[in-house]
């Protein structure tokens, strides 16, 4: 078996690895004799991971090639997600919860609750929580709702089942779940997931990708907005409209350039003032930013910020072309003929 090392180990360290059964750290499978044995950092060296034995793991050649720039931990999650998505093309949060329970990642989900109103408050009881939870509901045309943080044991997906029409409008997408998993390692959740009480269960119909990403991050409690005895027809129509004609509007490209450029510029100024004894360069800055951001942001996104910063700097200081010539949308017009893509 050929041994390939990303960084040099001494002879004693090599022997300690080779005396044990060589299993791929990513898959847990034994590495065949006809495959090269690779070693890699569990936490990437480029992102500050130490070159020590407890941060180095054996991998088969195939996995090491597929891993790319991901950390080993994130690559393992990616492999597990791929295994889940091989189960079909119409998978929802409910399918993921069942899968994670079967794999032993969670103890359960969708437990029965007891809910009633008392003196204007909503009281929720469940065998999975130590005491009852009390919330003050707010009125809305579709019905009353309240905000709460529920453990995974109390939530489920609002799919078609038990002779009920579910409000879940779409299926899980692999790329979206994995990118949200990476994003939530460092960034907060801005909005809660939305659901309703169906019988004696809490079922979610909006924000399933958020919860899926958080589940793979290890989160087991989720912020939710829950409707009580809603007008189902009205709520369903509203949900469809929210995912269709009222879907979140994207930023205009020119505004995105300014926002990303400003953020990147502040990071660049911080890097230039570092007194770490190294010569400052654009390549050094990108490596520094990767370590600062951690594994929650892809290198391509960092490159996009760099381009935005350069574009903004050109517009503001060199005055290569007047910013008034740029339209707010992505297409040029007769009055403002230059798009950001053309300028770049």
What is the fold's blueprint, element by element?
Blueprint: E1 3-5, H1 11-19, E2 37-41, E3 56-60, H2 61-67, H3 72-85, H4 93-102, E4 113-118, E5 121-126, E6 133-135, E7 144-151, E8 155-157, H5 174-183, E9 193-198, E10 201-206, H6 208-217, E11 221-228, H7 232-242, H8 253-272, H9 282-293, H10 299-318, H11 340-343
Parallel strand pairs: 1-2, 8-10, 9-11
Antiparallel strand pairs: 2-3, 4-5, 5-6, 7-11, 9-10
Helix pairs in contact: 5-6, 8-10
Profile the largest sheet: 5 strands, mixed
Quaternary assembly = single chain
What is the general shape?
globular
In the residues, how many domains can be counted?
Answer: 3
Low-confidence stretches: 1-6
Order of helices and strands: EHEEHHHEEEEEHEEHEHHHHH
Q: How far apart, in Å, are the first and last alpha carbons? A: 49 Å
What order do the strands of the largest sheet run in, or round the barrel if closed? 7-11-9-10-8
How many strand units? Answer: 11
Average the pLDDT over all residues and give the rounded result: 80
Enumerate how many helices there are, as a single number: 11
Radius of gyration from the alpha-carbon trace, in angstroms: 25 Å
In terms of structural class, how would the helical and strand content be classed?
alpha/beta
The portion of residues forming beta strands comes to 15-25%
What is the helix fraction of residues, given as a range?
25-40%
Q: Could you walk me through the main structural features you see in this protein, from its secondary elements to its overall organization?
A:
The protein is an alpha/beta fold and 344 residues long. The chain has three domains: 3-72, DNA Binding (I), subunit A (Orthogonal Bundle); 88-242, no CATH class; 253-343, no CATH class. Helix content is 37%, strand content 17%. The protein has eleven helices and eleven strands. The protein has helices spanning 11-19, 61-67, 72-85, 93-102, 174-183, 208-217, 232-242, 253-272, 282-293, 299-318, 340-343; strands at residues 3-5, 37-41, 56-60, 113-118, 121-126, 133-135, 144-151, 155-157, 193-198, 201-206, 221-228. The strands form three sheets. The protein has a five-stranded mixed sheet. A three-stranded mixed sheet has the order 1-2-3. Strands 4-5-6 form a three-stranded antiparallel sheet, with no helix packed on it. Helix 5 (174-183) packs across helix 6 (208-217). The chain is globular. The two termini are 49 Å apart. Mean pLDDT is 80; it is low at 1-6.
